[in-house]
Amino acid sequence: MRHWHILGVGAIGGLFASLLQAGGSRCTLLLREDDPDAGESSLTVELRCKQQHSHYRFPVSARGDSSGITHLLVTTKAQDIVPALAAVIPRLSPASTVLVLANGMGYLEQLQTRWPWLPCYAGTTTEGVYRQGRRLLCHAGSGTTLIGGRGESTSPPWFADWQNLAVNCAWEPRIDQALWRKLAINCAINPLTAVHDCCNGELASRPELAVEVQQLCEEIRMIGAAAGQHQAVADLHTKVAEVIAATANNRSSMLQDIRARRTTEIDYLNGYLLTLADELKLEAPRNRALVTAVRSLQKQAQKQVG
Ligand code: KPL
User: Fold this and answer.
1) For burial by CB atoms within 10 Å, which of 52, 204, 253, 278 has the most?
2) What is the pTM of this model?
C-alpha cells in the first residue's frame, strides 16, 4: 500500500482520502498555510453516507514542509492546480506520481509545460459528495470514477490502491475522451446556471433556458467533433438533459462559486473550448458570450469583496 498526499481538502479530496484510507492506503492531508487547521498535527473528517457516519483521522502536513511525496492526489479547483502544485514541487521527483481529479481541461498541458519531468495522470468522477460543515461530508450519490494517463493503455501498479476503493473506479485507456465528455456536460450546464442564477433543474423547466441549453450543446458538439472528439460529444444534448434531471435541485459548482465571490472554473471549461475554437478557426458565439458574462460576474463579485 502506498502513501498518498492529498492536495485540496474539499468535498472530493476528503471523500477520496477517506476511501483510500478505508482501503488500506496511508493518507496525509496537505493544508494551506492559512487553513485554520494548519497548525494541527492531525484532523478528522466525518463522512455521512445514508444512515452511516464514519470518522477518518489523518496526519496533516503544511504544503511548505520538506518531506518527500511519492503519490499525490490533487483535488483543487482547476484554476488552483498549478499554484497548489508549485507550493509542493520541491517535495516531488520524477519518481513521484501525480493524479489530478478536477473539472475542466487544459491543466495537464500547463503541468507538462511547467514541469515536463513530472509523471501526471488525470481522472474524472461523478461521485455525489458535498460539504455540510468544514470537515463534515455527505456522500449523497454513488457514481463512477475513471482514471488514466495519456497514451497509457494499461494501469500502473499504484492503481491497485484505487481498485480497493469501496466505490466504482476503473482505469480508462482513453482518458481524454472521458475528460472531454465531462467537460462538455459542465460547459453546457455550469455557465448558464451562473448567468441566470438558477438551479440545474430550471434549465429544463424554463422553456427559454431549455432552448439555450439545446443551442449551446450544438455549438459544443460542433467544437468537440472538429477537435476529433466525436465519441465524447455524441448525444450530448441527451446526456446533458439526463444530468440536469438527476441534479435538478443542485446549484452547479459555478453558481456556488459566483455566489461565494470565488473565482470560477470558466477558463478551464468554456474558456478552454474557446481557445480550441479559435485554433480551429470556428465561430463559437454562444460560448464566447458566456465566457464574457461569467468573467464579468466574477469581476463584479470580487470587487464587492475587495
Ligand atoms: O458537475 C457539476 C457541477 O456543478 O460542477 C454538475 C454535473 C453540473 C452538477 O451540478
Assistant:
1) 253
2) 0.95
